[in-house]
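Translate sequence into structure tokens.
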Amino acid sequence: MNSKKRDFLISISIIFTITLIIILYVNHVLMALFGLNQENFIFLIVPLLILGLALFLSFTNTILKPLFRSDDNLEKSVKETIHELNIPVSTIKMNTQLLEKNVTDEKSVKRLKRIKDASNNLLKLYENMEYNIKKEIDKIDDQEFYLDDMINSSIEKFEDIKKDIEIESLIPNIKLLTDLNGFEKTLDNLISNALKYNSKSNPKVNIFFENNVLSIYNNGEKIDTKNLFIIFDKYFQEDSSKDGFGLGLSMVKEFCDKNKISIKIDTFDNGNQFNLDLKNIIIH
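Result follows.
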């Protein structure tokens, strides 16, 4: 247990104990003066409860405010740092693009490409960190967007790594209202997994929409039935030889649960299919 959590629990315990002692003493005085019967029960208990709540909130605000002041300062500092990180990363990316127009030497082109890839990775890390921080300390506003545009954008991200895997997408122009960044990450994780765990002999990914359900199917080894109950757990990997830390599907499940999206898995002899029921976020 870290020191801040320990101090918090100790402080709350002290506040509760002091409040309880005061209320019991006031109750004792009132009982001595008026007694307790059916007629005055409500008139004695309700004021005591209100007094107890007021005292508890007052003590809590006074005692715990300094305890969490450092958290407020840290939150402010992190927000400012994240914001400032975007500037140098964007500058690197912009200047790399300018240099690409004038550089013809093969070695220099390769070096620029490595710099460009690295800056893109940094930019992606910045966006992920900014989103995760906002998710924890701010309210994420829902946005309207079209499902087919989001799917196409996600597929384009994997154009360089999908190799000979065929991706077939049949998505109508459906408007959704939800956390756009969270939904994008969910799609990216599911499509990435569909590519990663695909069949070598007949690689294929199908993405389609039917009866308010978005389905992502891939040819590949059938998920073991016993793992269907734990596949969304953090750090779980059915095939540990694959890259990653086993966090993708746990993030998918967390987002779906939070946004009232039902998710289920269908398994077949030659593949697996993830189904997202989007009825609660579709704009009709």
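Note: The longest strand covers residues 204-210.
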